[in-house]
Amino acid sequence: MNQKKKGVFRRIIPFFKSLGIKMLVIFIMAIISAVSFIVTPIYIGRGIDLIADGIKNAYVTGTTFQINFQTMGSVFIILIGLIVISMISGYYDEYLMASVSEIVALNMRNALSEKLHKLPLRYYDSTEKGEILSRVTNDIEKVSESLRQGLSQLISAIIRVSCSVAMLLIISPKLSLISFGTIAAAVCSTVLISKRSRGYFHNNQTTLGKLNGNIEEAFTGQLVIKAFNHEKNALGDFREINNQYYEDSRKAEIVQYIVAPTVRVVNSLGYIIIAIMSAFSIIQGRMSLGTVQMFIQYTDKASEPIIQCTNIFNTFQAGIASAQRIFQILDEPEEVPDAANSKQISIPEGNVVFDHVRFGYSDDNILMKDININVNTGDRVAIVGQTGAGKTTLVNLLMRFYDIQGGKITIDGISTNEMSRADLRSIFGMVLQDTWLFGGSIRDNIAYSNLDASDEEVISAAKSARANHFIRTLPEGYDTILNEDGLNVSQGQKQLLTIARAILADPTILILDEATSSVDSRTEKEIQKAMDNLMEGRTSFIIAHKLSTIKDADMILVMENGTIIEQGNHDELIEKRGAYERLYQSQFA
Predict the structure, then answer these.
(1) How far apart, in whole angstroms, are the C-alpha atoms of residue 460 and residue 472?
(2) CA neighbours closer than 13 Å in the CB half-sphere of residue 424
(3) How far is the C-alpha of 398 from the C-alpha of 411, rounded, in Å?
(4) Cα 83 to chain centroid, rounded
(5) What pLDDT does residue 307 have?
(6) Span 68-95, mean pLDDT?
(7) Which residues pair with 103 in a beta bridge?
(8) Element (H, E) at 169
(9) Phi, psi dihedrals of residue 406, rounded to the nearest 5°
């Protein structure tokens, strides 16, 4: 077992926390089941010897052979008792192991869910959703399946092999050498074949993650795929990944199931040799027929668990491959922890300062080198620039979705790095260009920003966002359940609901990222009036492409390649006849 696999096993152990008693009972049940299973051949052999001796005596004395039911009856009772004990203990062993495996899976899901909430936004920017979902669902289920099917069987197999080997040595050390040679050949075959399976199982789980990612992407983008007649291309991509998954699965399954026939062929050769030598022992009177039968059964019981261990080994291979993929997420660097003695702003006012801020998505690629902004309470700050200029990145830094590499950002004189993320983000209200609604009622979606809000406050927020009218026209009004992705309301209506959500939060600082991009001109004017009322007395950052909506802003920041190249109000920037003036003329020439 290499160091990497040892590390995986060592890391799984903490997920068995509080399961020590159950594992002890599982171990005891496995011992009872295995021992009763091992003792059975002794009484079968004794029964055969009793019958053989009875036949021999009848032949010698010339009498009729009769079975001694008193003697044989005790043998049968003991055999039935052993079988019942083995069955009951085996049942409880499997039952408890299933419970343990599900608890371990539960603990792993909790750990993974907790980790995903601690990962920085950049991780989600660079990782497919389907890949994450595959690890949370398929990979954890594969680990659970490996434990459920493999662990108790492994304990039982070890006990059975150990006891069987001991009995073989007791019965006939000479014949045991042949059995051990057979077992050694079977083990070598198993190890050689199973080594090939490790890479196949890892490739299998990796390709499954890609397949889930492709499916998630195709279903999410179904409208775009159909609009551009790319059904064939999407289907072709799916078939390519699906065929690769089939090949990886087929290779893993072939290697997994070729082991049992190989081991059985090796065992059969051993049985032939043992049978021939046993026959000579019986003829020479060194062994009885029952003893030979007992020896062959123990040979079978010593070699059969090897086949079982092979299946267990392959199951563990799949489980290890899945566990490694889970631990890859658990090993991802988390967000920088909040300061131990974090500061709070008791009554936020909304003064924002960017002081020589330096930021890049990596240390080798610095996007913002020296950003300086001074925003007073109640100022409306518009951020404009070409696509990819860094507008959204700037507000993401403000809410600390990303951590800066230099300088500092302060709110009311307190550095955002000295505040907890929860306290910092409670100051903000945010309306994004990409709307997000969850499956639930319209009332619940609006109240998402303030779970303690009353129905009257929810309705008031909807009225301010000009959403109350269309909500009232729905069959269930505010109790209307939004289906997946909110497809039973229009894109513009979804935008109104997210604006109502931001209004209900009653934030100190507003961030509006193209908040009216998905509504018509008439609705946009109504929303703009609501926004003007909402922004009154609040510091606001407005990302806009329509320059007509930000002419009255107190400060306009013009960005290009992550840097602020101009700042001032509308009239000042027009007089400069620079980048802003060119943008403005391009829209209103």
Answers:
(1) 13
(2) 24
(3) 9
(4) 41
(5) 65
(6) 79
(7) none
(8) helix 140-171
(9) -165, 160
In angstroms, the CA 303 to CA 264 distance is 9
Q: ∠ at Cα 409 (407, 415), nearest 5°?
A: 105
State mean pLDDT over 535-552.
Answer: 82
Cβ neighbourhood burial of 363 (10 Å; 0-12, 13-18, 19+): exposed
Question: Would you tell me how many other CB atoms lie within 10 Å of the CB of residue 426?
Answer: 16
Q: Reduce the DSSP state of residue 90 to 3 states and report it.
A: helix
Q: Which two tokens stand for residue 488?
A: 């039973």
Residues 550 and 541 sit within 8 Å (Cβ to Cβ): no
The interaxial angle of helices 231-283 and 173-220, nearest 10 deg, is: 170
Write a three-state SS string for 197-254. Answer: HHHHHHHHHHHHHHHHHHHHHHHHCHHHHHHCCCHHHHHHHHHHHHHHHHHHHHHHHH
Sequence-ordered list of residues with C-beta below 8 angstroms from that of 163, at least 6 positions apart, any chain: 34, 35, 38
Q: Specify which residues 113 forms β-bridges with.
A: none
As a whole number of angstroms, the distance between CA 243 and CA 205 comes to 14
- Could you tell me if 352 and 415 are in contact, meaning their C-beta atoms sit under 8 angstroms apart? no
How far apart, in whole angstroms, are the C-alpha atoms of residue 396 and residue 541? 11
270 or 427, higher pLDDT: 427
319 or 194: which leads in pLDDT: 319
CA 523/CA 465 separation, integer angstroms: 10
As to burial, measured by CB atoms within 10 angstroms (0-12 exposed, 13-18 middle, 19+ buried), residue 73 is: exposed
* Calpha distance 76→46 (Å, rounded): 11
Query: Average pLDDT, stretch 338-342?
Result: 82
Amino acid, res. 243 = N
Question: How confident is the model over 445-466, as pLDDT tens digits?
Answer: 899 888 888 999 999 988 888 8
Q: Is the pLDDT confidence value at 563 over 50?
A: yes
Secondary structure (3-state) at 360? strand
Using the structure block, give the residue that is written with the tokens 């930000």. Answer: 550
Residue 116 parent element (H or E): helix 69-118
How high is the pLDDT of residue 475?
83
Amino acid at residue number 78: I
pLDDT mean over 539-547: 85
DSSP structural state of residue 401:
S
How many angstroms separate the Cα of 115 from the Cα of each of 14, 125, 134, 380, 423? Answer: 16, 16, 16, 37, 20
Pull the structure tokens for residue 393: 């990145």
Rounded to whole angstroms, the Cα distance separating 162 from 309 reads: 13
In 3D space, the residue among 327, 330, 267 whose CA is nearest the CA of residue 300 turns out to be 267
DSSP class of residue 343? Answer: B
Number of neighbouring beta carbons within 10 Å of residue 435: 22
**Confidence at residue 3, expressed as pLDDT on a 0 to 100 scale:** 45
β-strands 414-415, 406-411: how paired? antiparallel
Question: Average of pLDDT values for 217-230?
Answer: 70
CA dihedral 476, 477, 479, 485 (to 10 degrees): 90
- Locate 228 and state its tokens: 């551009």
CA distance 251 to 320: 17
